[in-house]
Amino acid sequence: MVVGEVAVETDVVVIGGGPGGYAAAIRLGQLGKSVVLIEKEELGGVCLNKGCIPSKAFIHAAGEFHKLSAVSKMGIRLPQGRVSFHMNEWQGWKSSVISQLNKGVSHLCEANGVTVVKGTATFLSEDRIGVETGRDFETYKFAQAIIASGSRPFIPGFLERDGIHILDSSDILQLEEVPENLAIIGGGYIGMEMGMALAKLGVNVTIIEAAERILPQIGAAFSKEIQKQAKKLGMTIKTSTRVESATVADGHVELKITSEKDGEERLIQDKVLVTIGRVPNTGMIGLEQAKVQTDERGYIPVDQACRTNQPHIYAIGDVTPGVALAHRAAKQGVVAAEVIGGLPSANDSDLVPYVIFTEPQVAGVGLTKEEAERHGYTVKSATFPYAANGRALATDEGNGFAEVIVDAESHLLLGMHVIGAEASNLIGEGVLALELSARAEDLAMTMHPHPTLSEVWMEAAACVLGHAIHVVNKK
C-alpha cells in the first residue's frame, strides 16, 4: 500500500454510489460543487446491482412464465410440453438490464462533473477521508461529506451463509438453476416477493415467519389476501415459528424449527434463503475518527437536513433510522445536497410509500386504519374491489382492492393502500394526494380515464362519501 502524501481537496465527498449517494452527487454537481463519489463496487449500489432491479427482473420473468398456464381461456393455445424456464439464460438478460442502468448512472455523473473513485473509504479525521484503491491509498480533504454506505443482509450467528446452500437476498439472484424446494426464513417483503416468484416456477417453497402473520408491516386484510394467494401457488406458510438450527449435510440443509402449534419439526431443504432484515454499513468506515455518533444499533441519527452530530457531515439512506427503501435514500440525498448548496431544503415529510412485488402487488402511503385510530382520529374507510373495475376484468386481473382512509369529520385523506395488479404504479397518485392534503372529495371529483385501473381510487373515495357508482353503497 502506498500512502499519498498530498490530500486532494474537494467541496464534498460522498461515500457510497447507491440510489442515495449518486443522487446526492449529481445534485451537488448541478449546484456547482466539486464532488468526489466513492464506491467500492459498482455505481447503483445494492439496489441496482444485487437488489431492487435484478429481483424485479426475476419477479417479472416468473410472472410472465406463470401467466402462460392461464392463457388458454383467452383462446391462446401453446405447444404442449415446450414451455420451460432457464435460470442461466435469465441471468444473461438480467446482466444486460443492470449494465444499461450502470452506464446511465455513470454518464449522468460524468455529465454533472462528478469524480467517481472506485475504492473503500475510511474517515481519517473530521475533514479527511482515505480511499483504498487496489494498490494505492488516496486522501481527500473535504468541506462537507455525505455518508451513503448502505446496508447488508442480517444473518444470525447460527446460520452460516455459504452462498450455495444457505443464501442471502443477493445469492438467490445468482443461481444458475431453480431448486426443487426452498425454505425462506422471514415472511416480510423480500421473503414473500422471492417466495412467490419461485413458487410460480414450480419450486416447493416454505415460508418460516416468527410473527403471527406474514407481512406484519402492512394491514391485516392485505396480509391475509397475500397468504391466500401464496397457498394457491402451493406455498407452505408457517407463522409463529422460529428456526433453532440449520445443518448442511449431503447437499441439503436440515432445519430444526419450533412453534406452539406444531412443536418441534425438522425440514430437509435443497436451499435456505434468509430474509430477516438488514444492518447498516457503519462499522468499518472510521466514524470514530470523524466523531460521528451512532445509536445502539449502528444507525446514524440525523435531523431534517440529514445532518449528523457533526454539522458538516451528512448521512442518508439505510445508515439512518427508518425504512430501508431506495426512494427514501434518493430523496434524502437530494435534500442533503441542496442544504449543502445553500437551498432551503428539508426531509420534512413522513409520507414514504411502500411497494411489495408479491402476487398480487401491494402498495400504500400514509396511515392504515389501525394506525389512524391509534393516532386519535375518528376514521372512515372504504374499499373498492378490482372485480368491479372493467380494465381489471378485461385483463384477467380481478383480484384485489383499493382502500382509502379519511378523517370522518373533514374527509382529509390519511392513508391510501392498494392490493392488485399495477399497485406499484397506482400508488404514485396516493402519494401526491396526501402530499397535497387532499380530501376524499378531491379524489372522487377528479375525472379518471376509462377503462383504467386508476379508477379504483376515484371509486373508493366516492364509496367513503357514500356515492360510488359501481358498487352498492353502505347505508
TrEMBL record:
Binding note for cofactor: Binds 1 FAD per subunit.
Bridged cysteine pairs (disulfide): C47-C52
Gene3D superfamilies: 3.30.390.30, FAD/NAD(P)-binding domain
UniProt cofactor(s): FAD
Residues reported to bind NAD(+): G186, G187, G188, Y189, I190, G191, M192, E193, E209, G277
Domain Pyridine nucleotide-disulphide oxidoreductase dimerisation: 352-461
Chain sites annotated for binding FAD: K56, D318
GO annotation terms (biological process): 2-oxoglutarate metabolic process
Name of a matching Pfam family: Pyr_redox_dim
Origin superkingdom: Bacteria
Classification via PANTHER family: DIHYDROLIPOYL DEHYDROGENASE, DISULFIDE OXIDOREDUCTASE
Additional remark text: The active site is a redox-active disulfide bond.
NCBIfam families assigned: lipoamide_DH
Name recorded for this polypeptide: Dihydrolipoyl dehydrogenase
Organism this protein belongs to: Brevibacillus reuszeri
Lineage summary: Bacteria, Bacillati, Bacillota, Bacilli, Bacillales
